[in-house]
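Researcher: Go.
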Amino acid sequence: MTVSFLILPQIILLSGQSFDQLILGLGLIILTGISGLTTFIFIRIFINWWQAIAEQKRQVAQRAIAENDGYSTDSISRSKSEILEPLFIESDGDLTTSLFGDQTDVAELIQQPIIICEDPVALAQLYQPIALWQGRLILPTDDQRKPYGSVFLQVINTPKKYRELIGKTAILNLSTNRKNQFFVHAVTQDIKFTKQTENSKKSGKIHPDRLKGWRNVGPLETLAGSRLEDSVTVMLRRPVNVINYDSSDRHEL
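Model: Structure:
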């Protein structure tokens, strides 16, 4: 009994010392973390200060070089700031009325097509071709439509063998193999404008008006008629088969 009373105070004393050591260790860890974070913050502030000084010196050096060379970018900077300065419009109505007046139908403001390709031969000489076969899609009229959804292609670039086709208008067809025709039939559909589409046109959004009411519109007709004018330029991936190449009045691709 006497032994147990002697051991119990020693255990309590040891437990108290361990708890004090634990608290001391946690305090040291927290103090180390705070010291490291403080050191990092001071280092970051010093780096930012040094970068700011270096940037100021670099700008001063560039300005001195520009003055010595007789060239300065101050006028350019001023012109950019003047051009990019926003213009605020005060109006009680909506933005469309503020910009276009009382005419709420923005689509009516679009009059004649702006993009015109009158000389594809000259156009081909001015631009780097993006493909061996390149051309501008032309949507046929309702009377000119073909059963397989063919369109016209104004040829802009061709391989060397078919250079004589540049500037001419050919009939563009999709391949008649089973895989391509399965895709054609899958995406062929009738074009009908809903009331929501008509309201969308009044807000200025572009819709394929030339395809309105057409039945069985294929992928080529969709591409050619997606804009208000024939301005869609495409490239043809090989293989491209030329049909009736010797004929002077009809070429098919």
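Model: Strands lie at 133-138, 151-157, 169-172, 233-236.
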